[in-house]
Amino acid sequence: MNARLLLSFFLLSTTPLLAQFRYTPERPQPGDVVSFTYTPNAMLASETTIEGRYVRYGSPLVMRLSQPETATAVRVGNSVIGEVKVPKKDVAGFLMAFQSKAKPALIDHNNTHFYPILLHTADGNVQPHATGGQASVMVRTAFPYAMKIKPDWAWTVGQYERELQQHPTTRPLYWADLILAKMRQAESGPATSAPAGTRASARGGATKRAPAGRAPSPVNFRQTALTDIATYLDSQKPAPSPADLTTAAQLYDQLNEPKLAQQTRDRIKTVDPAGDAAQKARAEAVRAEPDLGRKLTAFSSFTQAFPTSAYRAVLVSSVAEAYFKPGQFKELVHFLTAQPVTATDPALLLSFAQQMAEEGRGLPQAEWIANRAIAVFRQVPAPRNSGQDRVAQIRAAQAALGHALEQQNRLLPALTAYREAATSLTPDQTDVRTNERTWLCAQRASRADSVLPFIESVVREGRATPRLRSSLIEWQTPRLGGAAQATTYLRTLEADYRADRRAELAEQFVNQPAPGFTLTTLDGKTVSLAGLRGKVVVLDFWATWCGPCVASFPAMRQARDYFKNDPNVQFLFVNTREGGPVSRVQNFVARQPYTGVIPLDLNQRVSDAYGVQGIPTKVIIDPKGRVRYRSIGYSGNAEATADELTLVIEALKEM
């Protein structure tokens, strides 16, 4: 260890309120294991468990790899000792911070600059990017924000400038980031100096901190930035690269110079008319074209000019969406048939098939698109880091295929597709809507007996919709000798599941007196809570302008239909907070496939009495006139909502 580094450690050790940080080997190289020792400052001195949080960094080209990680570390006396394994490539150093595990808000980030570990070459020199990469962490990663700091832009600019002094050949990689850092420095205003003291040096010790410089004013720097961009582009002989021009255009965009940005993008076509930047510029023009005819012409021209372009898949999706939105499904299929499988986004196809099948539109084309999606899912691997599960996507496409086939009355192929969608799944993993459709399709195809064991298994696991359960009771009624026997059969199947769910829901039950009310319904009748004594009453507070209210109607219909033959359950869809004439409610209801009792809470007295803070709000009252359950909002899952409501209602009926 050299004398200067030792001295820096001694400077720290004489001031107990300051942290000290050191590591070995003194000049680590790629592939090494670096051991570090950190002695906490006053803020972390009393913390039992301290974690080392760090990012590795390198050239701007690899900063996408700079994700926060946690170093293995243990407390030994007054210090924390740990180590990090240095990758063999794409790394020039690390920046570390130290954080209390028990109190995550306590973070030592070394006055916003973090603690650096710089990598060296085999001959002992600091690697290229070891200094500039520290600035790149501030500009290109979320690590500063994860560690709850605002970057010191004056320091960031200084690190970039030192990198360019040390390694002038790196300027093509840093010039734009340096300008961007200066822009942010100007936007943040004059820099302020950190508290007096020392901070960690680039070698893991400490040095006196120089006062931060004053940032240029935004007005002055705007012209300076424009000059810097032009100067750099002019310095590139014989001409700037397409990448440089693309970056310059982005900087002009940030400086609100659209003409300069467009002029710079136009230069790309001249510099490299067949390169990636030119392809990207033309692809963006195709995507932005709103007219379908002109979009198709531009797409054809693009594919002729760049038949193997990586942007083709994006443009295929853009054209496909342009066909899909106005419902030109035949033309959509004709277009997709001519496209290579590898240029087709199967996830987009799946969304098309699902929506078309749900809406009952273009069913032959929905069938073709679902089959195409399945084929592409099987042939094309999921993109890296996309989180896509190909097996699950194939199952979803098979379910959409079954739905499209069933609506075309091709029942046996539909049933096959539905069953394939559940292949290799345990009953508790199945999709409730697909289970419902499988059962209803099997009944229509006179194949109910063939799927009954499967249906019974999913019912046992609670993967059945209210409609499936009602249909199963109806189907079993003549076979088991009556509705009572069929109901008992269903209750036996789902006894364990319902017991578990009821226990969970019981923890959410309330027990409050239900305020009385008398309201006029939309059809001119009168309904009162007193007149419903002895029944389970479900109040659904809603308004026509409330999107989540309307979205929850399918769930409410499922729950209501489940109890349609039960005289001891009453659903009231209380229109409240409408803010408009009754005719608006009448017109809305006339357009909906929706029937039910709709009381009008014109002065909001009932919703206020029930403490409704937002809509939709659902309140369930037991037969004794006590509020036992309430929920606000809508999850978006109709089946889960309907299932929860039916379980609550049945539990209250039995209490």
From TrEMBL:
All copies of domain Thioredoxin, residue ranges: 508-654
Top-level taxon: Bacteria
Region entry Disordered, spans: 186-219
Extent of the signal sequence: 1-19
A GO-annotated cellular component: cell envelope
Localization annotation: Cell envelope
GO process annotations (BP): cytochrome complex assembly
InterPro entries: Redoxin, Thioredoxin-like_sf, Thioredoxin_CS, Thioredoxin_domain, Thioredoxin_ResA/DsbE_sf
Coiled coil (UniProt feature): none
Tagged with keyword Signal: yes
Entry keyword Nucleotide-binding: no
Name by which UniProt lists this protein: Thiol-disulfide oxidoreductase resA
